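Researcher: I'm preparing a figure for a lab meeting and need a structural model of a single chain. I don't have an experimental structure, so a prediction will have to do for now. The sequence is pasted below. Please return the structure as tokens so I can convert it later.
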Amino acid sequence: MIRPIRILVIALMGLVAMSIPAVASVQHLLPKPQQLSQNGQRFRLQRDVILQDDWSECSLLPEVLVDMGLRITSRAKTVVCVKRVLAVAGADEPALDGFENESYRLLIEDHQITIEAVSRLGVIRAAQTLLQLAETEGGSARWLEGVDITDWAAFKVRGFMHDVGRSFITFDELKNQIKLYSRFKINFFQWHMTENQAWRFQVMAYPQLTDAASMTRYAGSYYTQEQCRELDELGYKYGVYVIPEIDMPGHSQAFKRAMGHDMQTAEGIRELKTVLDEVMACFPHAPYIHLGGDEQGILEVDGQNFLTTMSAYVHEKGQRVMWWNPTRNLKVSRENGCDMAQCWSTAGRPIAGLPCIDCRYNYSNHFDVFADVAGMYRSTILYKKRGDSETAGFISCPWNDRKTPSQEDIIAQNNVFAVTLASGERAWIGGGQQYIEEGGAYLPNSGSEFDEFTDWERRFLFHKSHSLQHEPIPYVQQTNVRWLISDPVPNNGEATTEFPWDELKSADVEMPDNVTFNGKKYGWTQATGAGIYLNHTWGSVVPGIWGLNQDLNQTAYAYTYIYSDKPQTVGAQIEFQNYGRSEKDAAPINGQWDYKESDIWLNGNRIAPPVWDNNGSGGGDNENDLLNENFPARRPIPVTLNKGWNKVFLKLPYVETDRNTVRLNKWMFTFVLTDTEGKAAVPGLVYSPEKKR
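Model: Understood. Here is the structure written out token by token.
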């Protein structure tokens, strides 16, 4: 009788387990809350609630409650209560002119959810935390964990930008991104609407600005004023400031083609004032109007500085002004008309007494998919761990000077979701141990920074498979990928020179602790991640794993072993030169991985590169589409793993390239194994150069 009873008990336990509702967990919250404690209670979903909120006018909250599976009625025992407070106890949020307080307290108990906030924005942030809490593995949750969260933003600006003047993002996709980014407390969308290639903001007074004849790229594509008002209102609902940028005087060839004269003329100023009237009418919720101001000399027109004149006009209308920093021929200052500066390039330094946004190394059009995400997550923001009246936050900027076949290419190749949400968490929680100029663009092998990034990666990948599952996100798990990289050996500018390391690529050759060549002993450096910079894109200011300014005419080697518990065919994501989306570089020649003779072997067999769509061409002109040069724009290469340990070996020469072929010569590599579609890392693999499982 013992055996049947035991079987019955196990069966009953299985039925009970199947009947237990899924409980949402705090472990996936992104960004992490500033303060969180669990109280042991549980709030059941799928029931009636009364919403008590007579002040916030937050239209998003009731929608979130319904999305979570609650039914809002006038008669129920369960309450969702929104309380207005003068200050959220324990919150330490910096103040910044033009921006509301975002702090909130969220208390979840058995029969009540309480939100305390200073402003409507705080209620929106609490609502999005609730929405994340209702996500769970395998579907919607039936219960919420009881928690007490006190939360606030360390930096007031946490933003993303789209350059729709050079490129074009559909209006529906912009709305989609506003909604998605709001879930993660991104609060700032910079809409770069005018460029040399096209003017995208509809101006009723001057329809020629959006005439197809005035555009050189995506001719005829623009946004109507009705759409602009709709996006402004949508941003207001979701707690995202929509900031229009009308770039002046630079990047204005589209204006000149349409109007027949330059912006920096009496006629141009008169017309631009009319343009700004229409812009400000379409964006009533924007705390700033962005006037650009960079990359062209700013002149005097009729004895008055052009940019100062335009800024004064915006001020007359009761609105604040943003500029890029630096500008040419004009100091960025309040006295000259700037209310907030957006720092770009190493020259964009902080300005005393003026709020500054950090975009100096946030140009994701130059980023790889893996190492730069880690670098930005680890970095402080404009040298500070917490925002203040002079340090506003960050904006992630993908500049697509180079044309691409689709908007999905822009989003995927610039890795915009991973980059923005990595920097977004840093800006929400604050911290970072050092600025990227010191910390570099790489992932440490261990320690607190590694642990913190690993936790961010875990949470980001959860959301990639849930609320972001339909977005083109090339990022996959990389914190488990380990390498050993040889000390570099001089190659005298000959990339094909063979060294003793070349004999190590065979599957059956054991890797030595060091290699002696010409009387010198060469060791190995440990590295972690799917993307490794030996010399960064901006190698003079951003360190790779070996620091700054690595010399040309050297060769390094890298290897790891990968353990698979079965034979299987998987996808390999491989890159030796990340093609910047603002570059005119030519594609590699078919049969080669790059112009430096980089190469890779799996178990002694060379992994051949893909067939390049541009095949040695495609460069020299930004109007030639960037095709499959970067791995997010192509299917992964199918490779077969044996059961047991598999050897991956790379040769990495660093030699000069023709600047007309490849301008930014990056010493780097990317390697990670994914499913055959490239959607996710292959589960269960162990990457270990020491063969440690």
